[in-house]
């Protein structure tokens, strides 16, 4: 990201210089719809994110400028001072959540800019929250540890942005480490760094530039399916609280007691938990072919058992297979967004060209392409 744009704008707007902070967006290699089923996820921070220049201004007001939106907001730090602009809610929310926890946050000036593509499922909002949480924690010597910064970002979403999100996005943004993914249990915040150093491979996202309108709430319906299946299993195995505790054998025992749909959803959830564990072991061995097979199996499960794919995403997955891509799947909750692809260097150019031209021929629009590298988490730059 070009720091000069932010620096020049800050000088122009506020006539001085501040400190630079950066937090990344994230990918999730495998482990989709596992968090609420008591399983783990496997995210990593990427080399795209949010950059902010920040300096205390000696007042009780925050003066913020979004370089990308070319928009300015000014607001106080009391609950009733919530700004109009939705983009400013993220900054205001972080300040409020820190104040509620006893931090002495005062007014500051800031200019920020991002190169996380919006709507691609890379968590630009978590990157924004993490940038300000990390920066203000340091500037005002608030003394929060990294896990507290994660929760500050999550509660900002819950209380000020109307999104009831989990912790994966903020966790990856704060805890990211170059050359590693993070095996994270979202319910306990226990985590382990898993080596990710795919020599001879690239990671690339292909954005279907499609977001399907969701009639009713398919996420809630799938969650309820999983909860019903887990409850049925618990009848025989009281130790099972969520599907993350269950095996396929346990599910077979109750197959005739639950609907076919609930059985399919639960099969995917249990299989995905074991795929994630298997993928972590494969990564520790440097076995990227097994990793790739598991990624394809996740796509199949999300498409056929969990039924959260789209025609566009299935098409991109088929093209990846035909082009010899090692692993490809939908990334994120589904119903639109990107595929994440693990591609050998030798096949990369041909795959990108083929995916763009064939997608454009079939759907009449070009997909977007985002190469990503696994990188460090929130940090001060200067």
UniProtKB/TrEMBL annotation:
First-level EC class: transferase
InterPro entries: Galactokinase, Galactokinase_CS, GalKase_N, GHMP_kinase_C_dom, GHMP_kinase_C_sf, GHMP_kinase_N_dom, GHMP_knse_ATP-bd_CS, Mevalonate/galactokinase
Ranges of residues in domain Galactokinase N-terminal: 9-56
EC numbers: 2.7.1.6
Keywords of this entry: ATP-binding, Carbohydrate metabolism, Cytoplasm, Galactose metabolism, Kinase, Magnesium, Metal-binding, Nucleotide-binding, Transferase
Residue intervals of the GHMP kinase C-terminal domain: 281-347
One function term, GO molecular function aspect: ATP binding
Protein name per UniProt: Galactokinase
Organism, scientific name: Odoribacter splanchnicus
């Amino acid at each position: 990201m070009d720091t000069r744009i932010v620096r020049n704008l800050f000088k122009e707007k506020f006539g001085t210089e501040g400190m630079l902070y950066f937090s990344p967006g994230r990918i999730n290699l495998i482990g989709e719809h596992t968090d609420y089923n008591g399983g783990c996820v496997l995210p990593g921070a990427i080399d795209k994110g949010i950059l902010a220049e920040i300096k205390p201004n000696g007042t009780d007001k925050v003066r913020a400028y979004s370089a990308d939106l070319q928009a300015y907001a000014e607001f106080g730090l009391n609950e009733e001072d919530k700004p109009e602009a939705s983009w400013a809610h993220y900054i205001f929310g972080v300040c409020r959540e820190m104040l509620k926890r006893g931090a002495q946050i005062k007014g500051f000036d800031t200019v920020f800019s991002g190169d996380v593509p919006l709507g691609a499922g890379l968590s630009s909002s978590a990157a924004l929250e993490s940038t300000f949480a990390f920066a203000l924690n340091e500037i005002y010597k608030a003394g929060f540890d990294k896990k507290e910064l994660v929760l500050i970002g999550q509660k900002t979403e819950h209380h000020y942005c109307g999104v009831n999100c989990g912790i994966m996005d903020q966790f990856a943004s704060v805890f990211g480490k170059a050359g590693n993914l993070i095996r994270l249990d979202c319910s306990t915040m226990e985590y382990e760094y898993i080596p990710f150093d795919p020599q001879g491979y690239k990671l690339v996202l292909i954005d279907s530039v499609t977001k399907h309108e969701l009639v009713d709430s398919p996420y809630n319906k799938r969650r309820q399916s999983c909860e019903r299946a887990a409850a049925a299993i618990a009848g025989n195995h009281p130790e099972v609280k969520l599907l993350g505790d269950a095996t396929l054998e346990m599910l077979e025992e109750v197959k005739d007691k639950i609907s076919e749909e609930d059985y399919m959803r639960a099969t995917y959830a249990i299989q995905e938990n074991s795929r994630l564990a298997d993928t972590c072991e494969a990564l520790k061995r440097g076995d990227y072919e097994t990793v790739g097979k598991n990624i394809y199996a996740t796509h199949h499960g999300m498409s056929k058992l969990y039924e959260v794919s789209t025609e566009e995403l299935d098409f991109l997955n088929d093209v990846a297979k035909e082009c010899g891509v090692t692993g490809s799947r939908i990334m994120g909750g589904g119903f639109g967004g990107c595929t994440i692809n693990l591609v050998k260097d030798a096949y990369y150019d041909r795959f990108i060209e083929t995916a763009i031209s064939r997608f454009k021929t079939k759907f009449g629009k070009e997909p977007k392409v985002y190469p990503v590298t696994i990188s460090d988490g929130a940090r001060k730059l200067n």
